């Protein structure tokens, strides 16, 4: 019972790290970026290449994956995404889904279509047995890392000057610009941050979720559920949503495996019926 | 007439005069026999295509290109593995435009099924080198199979489990047609032999995480877990199986040999060690034919280890050559199929027969355990069930 709960929390945390970049672009920048998973995939593949072909230790490889995805996000934001900020959502959807196909094809060409495998360092393998429950070391590691990220993000957005400027830029870009806030630069940095977090999630997820060129499409639905249920304008909302969905998904697969795959969708429908604007919505969205 | 054009005229005349003495390509006694090989060379099943393509080239390198007085010519087409319509269209083009005499390849069941009507109508033999659902050979009198069928591979592991003290076993299969087939085959045989299956799990095809399912298996306190998942996913299952400590809880992992596919077995690492599977081919099979095959295959594809898919392609070529020898080079479809029926030979996998009535393959199935030998992981065979035929036919 408790083991299932811990597994669910770990899977929810991972889901949040992967998806929170999307909640930033979608909620804060109002840009529908379906290619978000592709940055996770890029990070994951870089991590695999560094680990398997260059013998880089696990932690530096994961960090490099996050940086690489952030850099990729920054470059693409500067060159491609900016062109589409003002366009309507259909254009953005078409553009970003096209980007997914391009990146999947590139990965397929470079790395092949099969599942990528990594071997964790010894200190992350195995399980702790507490008598009443057992916890996988790697799952505990996931919870710790992702928990720290959530905290840092929340404080960063609420407490720092950058967070305040970002919120201002999102609320009203014109006025913010008039007050001397460098809106485009803030958006660029934010986009890179979101992409970097996706890359981090992709790298951490190789062991748990697997990695192949269909990764961005496979998990796109999960990301969208997190953002839809969580509401797209906070950090805490998507975090709670991801946790809830992780736990419900794992528990559903454990207790009712016959319909396990559908439990997560049922949960989404119920939550959206009860709270149509997201878990922590403050009245109507803007 | 200007001097220029006169000079050109003279030049042309000189060429014409010289022509008969120019070296010309030697003309064979008859036109080559064309084989249309349709494989998934890209996409999620590219591994199957690469293996079979390498095996076909290996066979040609080992046995030469002339058989029954005719030269074999292979035309390779990529159907990407996911679109039955594409496979069918490629087969039609090969038959109509390229005038192929034999169709071969077919990585997955839907691809083979969609092409069956083309073979029937064009009266062209169709050699299935990979796809493994029982019914395929019944879909056209021109279909022959050199790979395997799923029930043929599943029954032996159920038998092995039942006769090795395993009385309760959980099943975990992916929720798609081949998964259902293997679940049904395993369940039927295992319960016939007195075993109990207290837990049957089906995992979604697009499944991110096997952990909750495996936790459930662990808590069900069974003696073994039978697994069937798409090729490549097996590594993830084994990893989670290992991480959850199911082995320490006394649960054995069993399955059919695609779980420990030779193509990627080595990368699966230590979690794969000790997994027991039933299958018709292991690259570690101990026979002179197999040693010769593996060495020749490595020359064609230095970075690959031949897997069970490759040997289907290798024997498919042998079957076509045997057919041509039987008809003395005649390529009439019906006569070729008749010549191929009932043929037996020693394959790298062991003795095989193409059944004269069903046109399906009859072969030895081995029980193997994954072990580390010389620093690499191999499927080491330790038991053999001779001449298994598809129980469905």
Features:
heterodimer; A: 286 residues; mainly alpha; ABC transporter involved in vitamin B12 uptake, BtuC; two-stranded antiparallel ribbon; 11 helices; 2 strands; 2% strand; B: 393 residues; alpha/beta; Rossmann fold; nine-stranded mixed beta sheet; six-stranded mixed beta sheet; 12 helices; 15 strands; globular
Describe, in plain words, how this protein is organized in 3D.
The complex is a heterodimer of chains A (286) and B (393). Chain A has one domain (2-274): ABC transporter involved in vitamin B12 uptake, BtuC, CATH 1.10.3470. Helices cover 73% and strands 2% of the residues of chain A. Chain A is built from 11 helices and 2 strands. In chain A, strand 1 (127-129) and strand 2 form a beta hairpin. In chain A, helix 2 runs parallel beside helix 4 (89-111), helix 2 (36-54) crosses helix 8 (183-209) and helix 10 (236-255) packs antiparallel against helix 11. The termini of chain A are far apart. The model of chain A has no long low-confidence stretch (mean pLDDT 84). By secondary structure, chain B is an alpha/beta fold. In chain B, the strands form 2 sheets. In chain B, strands 7, 8, 9, 10, 11, 12, 13, 14 and 15 form a 9-stranded mixed beta sheet that branches. Chain B has a 6-stranded mixed beta sheet with strand order 2-3-1-4-5-6, sandwiched between helices. In chain B, helix 2 (46-63) crosses helix 10 (288-300), helix 5 (150-162) runs parallel beside helix 6 (177-192) and helix 11 (308-326) crosses helix 12 (333-340). The longest helix of chain B is centred in the last third of the chain and has 19 residues, at 308-326. The model of chain B is unreliable at 14-28 (pLDDT under 50). The interface between A and B is medium-sized, with 35 and 32 residues.
């Amino acid at each position: 019972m408790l083991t299932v709960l811990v597994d669910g929390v770990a899977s929810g945390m991972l889901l949040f790290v992967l998806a929170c970049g999307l909640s930033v672009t979608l909620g804060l920048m109002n840009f529908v970026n379906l290619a978000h998973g592709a940055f996770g995939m890029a990070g994951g593949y870089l991590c695999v290449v560094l680990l398997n072909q260059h013998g880089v230790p696990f932690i530096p490889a994961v960090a490099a994956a996050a940086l690489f995805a952030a850099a990729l996000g920054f470059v693409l934001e500067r060159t491609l995404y900016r062109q589409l900020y003002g366009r309507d959502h259909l254009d953005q959807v078409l553009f970003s889904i096209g980007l997914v196909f391009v990146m999947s094809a590139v990965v397929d060409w470079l790395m092949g279509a099969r599942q990528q495998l990594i071997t964790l360092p010894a200190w992350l393998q195995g399980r702790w047995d507490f008598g009443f429950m057992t916890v996988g070391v790697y799952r505990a590691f996931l919870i710790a890392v992702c928990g720290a990220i959530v905290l840092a993000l929340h404080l960063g957005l609420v407490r720092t000057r950058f967070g305040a400027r970002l919120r201002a830029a999102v609320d009203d870009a014109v006025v913010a610009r008039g007050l001397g806030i460098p809106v485009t630069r803030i958006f660029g940095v934010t986009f890179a941050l979101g992409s970097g977090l996706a890359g981090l999630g992709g790298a951490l997820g190789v062991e748990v979720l697997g990695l192949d060129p269909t990764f961005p499409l496979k998990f796109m639905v999960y990301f969208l559920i997190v953002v839809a249920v969580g509401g797209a304008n906070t950090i805490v909302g998507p975090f709670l949503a991801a946790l809830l969905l992780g736990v419900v998904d794992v528990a559903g697969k454990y207790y009712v495996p016959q319909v396990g795959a559908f439990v997560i969708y049922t949960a989404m429908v119920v939550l959206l019926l009860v709270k149509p604007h997201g878990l922590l919505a403050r009245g109507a969205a803007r | 007439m200007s001097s220029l054009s006169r000079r050109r005229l003279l030049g042309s005349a000189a060429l014409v005069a010289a022509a008969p003495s120019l070296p010309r390509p030697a003309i064979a006694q008859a036109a080559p026999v064309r084989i249309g090989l349709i494989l998934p060379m890209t996409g999620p099943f590219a591994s199957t295509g690469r293996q079979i393509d390498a095996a076909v080239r290996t066979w040609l390198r080992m046995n030469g290109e002339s058989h029954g007085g005719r030269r074999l010519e292979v035309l390779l087409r990529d159907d990407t593995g996911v679109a039955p319509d594409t496979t069918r269209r490629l087969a039609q083009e090969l038959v109509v435009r390229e005038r192929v005499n034999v169709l071969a390849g077919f990585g997955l069941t839907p691809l083979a099924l969609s092409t069956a009507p083309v073979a029937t109508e064009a009266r062209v033999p169709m050699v299935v080198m990979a796809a493994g659902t029982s019914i395929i050979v019944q879909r056209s009198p021109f279909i022959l199979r050199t790979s395997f069928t799923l029930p043929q591979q599943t029954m032996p592991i159920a038998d092995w489990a039942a006769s090795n003290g395993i009385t309760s076993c959980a099943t975990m299969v992916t929720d798609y047609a081949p998964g259902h087939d293997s679940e049904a085959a395993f369940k039927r045989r295992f319960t016939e032999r007195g075993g109990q299956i207290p837990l049957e799990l089906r995992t979604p095809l697009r499944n991110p995480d096997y952990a909750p399912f495996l936790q459930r298996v662990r808590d069900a306190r069974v003696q073994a877990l039978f697994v069937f998942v798409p090729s490549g996913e097996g590594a993830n299952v084994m990893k989670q199986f290992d991480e959850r400590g199911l082995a320490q809880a006394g649960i054995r992992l069993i399955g059919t040999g695609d779980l420990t596919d030779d193509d990627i077995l080595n990368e699966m690492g230590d979690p794969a060690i000790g997994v027991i599977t039933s299958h018709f081919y292991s690259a570690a099979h101990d026979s002179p034919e197999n040693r010769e095959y593996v060495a020749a295959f490595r020359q064609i594809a230095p970075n690959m280890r031949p897997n069970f898919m490759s040997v289907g392609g290798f024997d498919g070529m042998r079957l076509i050559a045997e057919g041509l020898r039987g008809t003395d080079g005649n390529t009439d479809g019906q006569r070729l199929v008749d010549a191929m029926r009932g043929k037996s030979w020693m394959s790298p996998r062991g003795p095989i027969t193409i059944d004269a009535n069903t046109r399906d393959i009859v072969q030895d199935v081995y029980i193997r355990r994954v072990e580390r030998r010389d620093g690499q992981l191999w499927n080491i065979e330790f038991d053999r069930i001779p001449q298994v035929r598809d129980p469905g036919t």
